[in-house]
Specification:
By secondary structure, the protein is mainly beta. The protein contains 1 helix and 24 strands. The N terminus is likely disordered.
Length: 334
Amino acid sequence: MRQKSLRFVGVLVVLFALAALIGCQGVSVGKQDAQTPASGQLTATPANVNFGSVQSGMSQSQSETLSNSGGSSLTISGGTINGTGLSMSGLTLPVTLSPGQTTTFSIKFSPESSGSYSGSVTISSNGSNPNLTISLSGSATAQTGQLSVTPTTINAGNVTVGTSGTKTATLNATGASVVVSSVGLGGTNPTEFAITGLSFPVTVSTSQPVSFTVKYAPQASGGSSAIASFVSNGSNSPTTATLTGTGVTATAHSVDLSWNASTSSDVVSYNIYRANYVSSCGSYSKIGSSGNTTYTDSSVVNGQAYCYEATAVNSSDQESTDSTPITDVAVPSS
């Protein structure tokens, strides 16, 4: 009887152990189903921004991408930028990113002077990295001016051979002031042109152009040209301008004279006298004679004014008093 009773107890112990094992497995499965999903995580591309070298007074922009690389949505609530010459735009807040979603914004670098620059952008969110920092760097070089000539082709027009004509032009600077140290002439007819009105070195500022004069003295009829090269500390030195002009042959002018005949019966000829006129008639000198009451003066100079008188001469070579003078007879200059 005792032996039977012991075998029955052993069976109960085995069954109880099996029930306990099954119960533990049920508890373990229940704990796995209750795990929390991974949180959102913010990443930036590129992680750091280098603008390289930018000329002072100019600007450069770069695009930045923010991504949610985590397992759940996150919300970007803030964005600040620190650093001289740096600014950001295009980030509208707040913005929510689902896993794998991105948003972009722009960072601008606008240095005002030469040197090295650094700064940062901080993005705030409820992700696992609540404050994401993007480092910014760049450098600026000193601004260099550029020189220009207005007009680029300077035409002196038609000029009579043996005389000269002039044309005015200007030197201009953009970006920064430019110091012009010299000017040289080359090309086809450099000896017929000259640059005047500049005392080197001359500083041309961005707000104050500098005028100069081109002088053209043609040595023969026909077209002439030359190249003026201005040497400066500008980035586009030497700066050139084309000089042009046309030489024309001087027109031969003459003065035709006529007068009333003398009332004397013994007149055989007339003597003609001429004087230069400025504000009054100068000293007269004989330039010719005529057997009638007309005379052509072909020895006049262009641009000069004259006075004329005539006398009557009889057969005894006696000369009358001077006639009433004709004054300020102007000969055209060309």
